[in-house]
Amino acid sequence: MGRKYTEEEISMILDTYMYLGYQEASKEPVELKEVIGKLSGVPEYGTGGTYQNEYRILEQAVQDEQIGNLKVCYASSTLGFDHGTKACTFLDEKNDRIFVAYRGTGDGEWPDNGLGMTKEITTQQQRAVDYFDTVARKAQLTENQRVIVTGHSKGGNKAQFVTMETEFGDLIDRCYSVDGQGMSEKADARFQRKYSEAEYQGRIQKLYGIHGENDYVSPLGNQIIPENHVTYIRTPVQKGNFAGYHDITYMFATLVLDRTTGKWVTQFTGRRNEEVLKQGSLGKYASELSKEIMKLPEEERAGAANVVMQGIEAAGGASRGLNGEKTTLADVKHFLFAGIPAITDATTKTAGGLNFLGKTLWEDSYTKEIPDRICIEVDYEALASKSEGLSAAAEETIRLGEQIQSYEKEMPFYMQGRNLVTFQLKQVASEVEHLGKKMQKLASLQQEIAACYQKADEQTEELCNR
Predict the structure, then answer these.
(1) What sign for the dihedral angle of Cα 92, 93, 96, 102?
(2) DSSP letter string over 104-123?
(3) 409-452, pLDDT tens digit by residue?
(4) What are the pLDDT digits (tens) for 71-81?
(5) Element (H or E) spanning 149, and its range?
(6) Which of these, 241, 265, 235, 240, lies nearest to 253 by C-alpha position?
(7) What is the DSSP string of 171-183?
(8) Do the Cβ atoms of 145 and 97 come closer than 8 Å?
(9) What's the CA gap between 85 and 132, in Å, rounded?
(10) Burial 267-303 (b: 16+ CB within 10 A, else e)
(11) Of the candidates 148, 104, 210, 132, the residue with the CA atom closest to the CA atom of residue 7
(12) Which of 37, 39, 297, 374 has its CA at 20 to 30 Å from residue 362's CA atom?
């Protein structure tokens, strides 16, 4: 029999479960080993499947009764919460212990991550609190039970926020935030206003951070977890797998040499890797970058963060966030003229950034001299010219829509609105005009960006000539 699972390790296993893409929807508690057993043989969880790594970890972990006998209940989907919340509760009846786990960024939640860099409280943070409060009432939690709140990535941020915000804070014994980002200054100020110093510190002392050695999300934002409550875990990620540094499964990974091919192969086990003494080069760079971003005025920081998060959301096929968030022209400006310079400074003017740059270039360290000024050159004349071409095409598209609409109106009155052809003409005309207006907005955005770069260029030249 191997070593006993610690509370921290059980929390990490449950955080991994939340990524399986499967939540037991039964309103009656069901043992975790039964849930995992049901997934055996399903292609998505087998070799080459989407969730093969997560499943492999859970498949081994549930062999231990500490984890296998946990009962899954109160899935957020069964309690009326949106598909972004994704939370679950796990009952350890033998030890009278409760785990409440939040999944990382859910569908449509990326923009909410950006808002968390500046807002006092975001919509999804509030829903996480609502979920915990609902469970506390339904399960009739008491101080006689040990209650643990946990989550990975955004789930870790939610776990921290819940621990600090919920009206049932006295019931929470421990919070384990795994790779979870920090808070905004406003959120921390909210907590300090809400409680006495003793109450505030009492909740803070319940927070613990468990981060991958090169995780790049946990350093973001204002850190409220005490430094002596943070541990780093070995994450053996092969070079080129950037996403792996923030993937919880790599905290359970081992690199094994395949003697047949001579290549390293990643294997996943049901046990967490050992702790390391310090943060890795990528993690340190992320810390430096966060400091530069947090120095920005709130409006610029919010805009830059929104562009990045909306971009990630758009990559998944969604034009807006779960709660209707969208990118504005002002956001784009803040990203271009505040966000990019902050990223450049963090990369070229800090020890963490230079070390990371060296590692990225496959060197032990970066020793080349970095100039005092780094110029980003943009051909704004070409950008403006392209926007003019797009604007002309937009006008032609709108005219085409109007022309199609005129054909429908010129049809005999006894045919108008009375058959499929006229209906389709109206529909096509509307869609073409709508496309033309979208093209106009894009052309206007390009023109505005070109003008901003031109103005910046002229101001720089004026300063140089003084």
Answers:
(1) positive
(2) SS-TT-HHHHHHTTT-SS-H
(3) 776 665 555 566 677 777 887 888 888 888 887 788 778 777 77
(4) 999 999 899 99
(5) strand 146-152
(6) 235
(7) GEEEEEEES---B
(8) yes
(9) 11
(10) ebebbbbeeeeebbbbbbbbbbbbebbbebeeebbbb
(11) 148
(12) 374
* Radius of gyration, CA atoms only, the chain: 26
What phi and psi, each to the nearest 5 degrees, are found at residue 148? -120, 130
Residue 3 DSSP symbol: P
User: Which letter does DSSP use for residue 323 in this model?
Assistant: T
Q: Amino acid identity, residue 166? A: T
Domain ranges of the chain: 7-278, 286-342, 380-464
Crossing angle (nearest 10°) for helices 197-204 and 154-165: 150
Of the candidates 205, 9, 27, 14, the one whose C-alpha atom is nearest the C-alpha of residue 104 is 14
Is the pLDDT reported for residue 187 higher than 80? yes
Q: Is residue 32 within a helix (H) or strand (E), and if so which, with residue range?
A: helix 32-38
Q: Which CATH class is domain 380-464?
A: mainly alpha
Q: Is there a shared CATH topology between the 7-278 domain and the 380-464 domain?
A: no
Burial class (CB in 10 A: 0-12, 13-18, 19+), 361: exposed
Report the alpha-carbon distance of residue 182 to residue 109 in Å, rounded.
16
Tokens of 46: 């087998």
181-220: b or e for each residue (b if 16 or more CB lie within 10 Å)? Answer: bbbbeebbebbeeebeeeebeebbebbbbbbbbbbbbbbb
Name the pTM for this structure. Answer: 0.81
Residue showing tokens 């971003």: 293
Q: Which helix (H) or strand (E) is 90 found in, with range? A: strand 87-92
Determine the 3-state secondary structure of 274 from DSSP.
coil
Q: To 10 degrees, what angle do helices 185-194 and 154-165 make? A: 20
| φ, ψ of residue 17 in degrees (nearest 5) | -55, -35
> CA-to-CA distance for 231 and 216, rounded, in angstroms?
15
Residue 434's SS3 state is helix
DSSP conformational letter for 215: -
Q: Among the residues of 316-350, which ranges form H helices?
A: 329-334, 340-348
d(CA 135, CA 276): 35
Quote the CA–CA distance of 395 and 385 in Å, as a whole number. Answer: 16
Please state which architecture CATH assigns to domain 7-278: 3-Layer(aba) Sandwich (3.40)
**Higher-scoring residue by pLDDT: 82, 369:** 82
